[in-house]
Structures
1.
Amino acid sequence: MEIFKQIAPLRAHLDRLRKSGVSIGLVPTMGALHQGHISLVEASKSQNAITVATIYINPTQFNNPNDHQKYPKTPEKDILMLQNAGCDVVFSPDDLEMYSEKPGVIFDFGNLDKVMEGKFRPGHFSGVALVVSKLFNIVQPDRAYFGQKDWQQFAVISLLVRELKFNFEVHSVPILREPDGLAMSSRNLRLNASQRSSATVLYQCLEMARKAIKSGTPLETVKKAVSEKVNQKPEMKLEYFELADSKKLTILNDVDNSVSPILCIAAYAGETRLIDNMFLD
């Protein structure tokens, strides 16, 4: 496995590989890897000859400086996990390499970045789009892989790829969960034992809501039940729970069979913010 910290040698290495006709898959991460990330690597390896994973905690997507500072960092473990997973190339730059000057580009994705995550994390998706555009340009993959847990991010990136005419495919890989249902997330490392136990309520609420909605329970009744269920758990505070069109992320007030609805939830466990989602069908 080759490890690069600078753009120029990485590009030179990938250019040599590309000339031999191999396909390249890209797995962007912010480190603190878990098996969910490895499932992205495995998806890439199944469709590409070469898999490139990036490890970079992007400062421009954090609207809360404290959240950026406390984001988990496990670099040695990350490298070992990627090596064991058969990853071919790792790109792990520092801030100066990625942002040699103060960013001056701002993205606007219309409704996609104004609801849910965009509403509670203003500027977040502009920062995501900026760093992902840089990585796309640096690596020039044939395919790129993202986790379903960050579904709104995937919708934003899909629009970015279409609008900017990037010539490759983007793939969403299903959520991997712990045995008790909690979605695998780097932020889980920040949870203490009590918070970790309480956090399983997010998955429980999604399951409960899915069954209730499909059985005909009004959405407002379901929303109230979800709010009560989350907020009664120790150290948990619901931020939002919505039913949305999974493509356009339009918030739905009722089930619309003409779209593919997705249930999305965000809550705090102590100071740690967690998200999860589940397709209605």
2.
Amino acid sequence: MKRLNFFLITLFLTPPLYADRRGDQGLGIMLGNPTGLSAKFWMDDLWAIDGAIGIDRSEFDVHLTILRHDFIWVNRIGNKWGWFQRLTTEGDLPYYFGAGPRILFEDKEEIGIRFPVGLSYLPHQSPWEIFLEVAPVFRLTPSTGFNGDFSVGVRYYFQAIRPRVGGVNP
């Protein structure tokens, strides 16, 4: 129980140790199930909205998800391996999780809720993100049940226009 409490406190109250991403927008592609276009909008340093349109099992798929990122947990585990530590000093490697609606357009629309869990790599000296995610999907219509999504992808980030502080951009 102590570990669970520590995990929850760390997860939600830890200050960010990375660059400000608030307002940054990423556009890219994802391959897997679904395959298509992906977009991500950072609301602040930990929360983002992710959306995609694509093809899933020969049907048109649309989903929108709110994601919570953790930039510290993976680094703590990775500090035990030298190559991993070098990777995490040259970029951020957050894991993320979230929830949101998904619609699969087929003969009868399939509506469900996705619960993605993934890992992203955001190099410090590059505007690109590489990601890998799995997402159980709880189907609500036309019948209840479970499906699953799996995707790998890349996104290119357009940095947000930030307000000037003291006459210069931060």
3.
Amino acid sequence: MSHPSLTTFDLPEGRSPRALILMLHGGKQSGLTPVDGRSASWRRSHAMARAIVPRAHAADVAVWLLRYRVRGWNAHLADGPSPVPDARWALEQASALDVPVVLLGHSMGARTSVHVADDPRVRGVVALAPWFEPGDPVELLRGTALRAAHGRTDKITSARRTRAFCRRAEPVAASVRFTDMGRVGHYMLRRVEQWNDYAAATSLELLDPEREPGRHA
């Protein structure tokens, strides 16, 4: 089986990052196919990474993009490969930087993010068109900020479930905010600049020590 890997957009030589945005791409409910450079989910997040890197680097924030071993969540398989240990591995690699981390996840990547949000390095989760299920834990978000954005015409994942997850997270998360992205679908192909702007601005907001994130319904 293949190994997880990282595409890193580090600051120019001589500059040290004060924080890290770790991006987690989408996937499928089930699938054992290795993720490679042809994966649409990985390529979508890679394009977003390239779009937000200039703003991140201007704020002295590095950007890393994780590539999972396989495409699926695979909850139906006993001991099946999952993106969760891959994300734990990536956070362990980030420990060498010794900086706070925001997890920026799309779809399955957002679901993965909340499953590893208890890592002490994680300051916040930014969930783009997330795939949340009613049984997904909110306790792992204790003391961590959650930001979620969803389009109203998403036919792949549910904005209604995202709102419900946010409501469940409110008692434990440091702060919660849901953003309605309007009449856009799942793959962030419509209004791509709006998605990129949300991803960059929200991630950097959560990494700004001068800001105290507010709690919203």
4.
Amino acid sequence: MLIREKEANSIKEDKVTLVKNFTTLTKEYDANFVSRLIDENSLTVIEKTSLPNLKNVFQIKEVINCLSEFKIFFDFFRKLFKYEMDQRDEVDLFFSFVTQVGESHTDIEDVYIIGLNGKIIYRIYDEETKDYEINKGDLIFIPKGLKHKVIGLTPRVIASIGFYGKKNK
């Protein structure tokens, strides 16, 4: 895992931050991975898209204890950015097996998104609208309250690490 000082400072300042090649992933996070993860851990899958022709976006909540890499990512961000503990902090997976566009939304937590599979655009609506391309191993930080939209250019799997507590700078 690699975050340079400039990128860490940007996150500390609550700015959208893209980190290309944040981590090297040797595991294949594809449909077979998702299927095995669900079966082996008796996880519940939630369909997330409410738009009728933009369906097939799914979420698996609370996967932090399913695989060691998710716990490692979670602990890395918590310690690096000194988040206060909150019982809602968690790692979730989002995936789709088709290209799709999600709904514009804001999150009430700071979110660290790691690309596990596929090519995704995160459209951020800040002072100006800006697109960030995420691929396998890339990271994007989106601070709480910032409107954004996900555009899946291919089928995708991402890890979403959310912190609700205060970040101590």
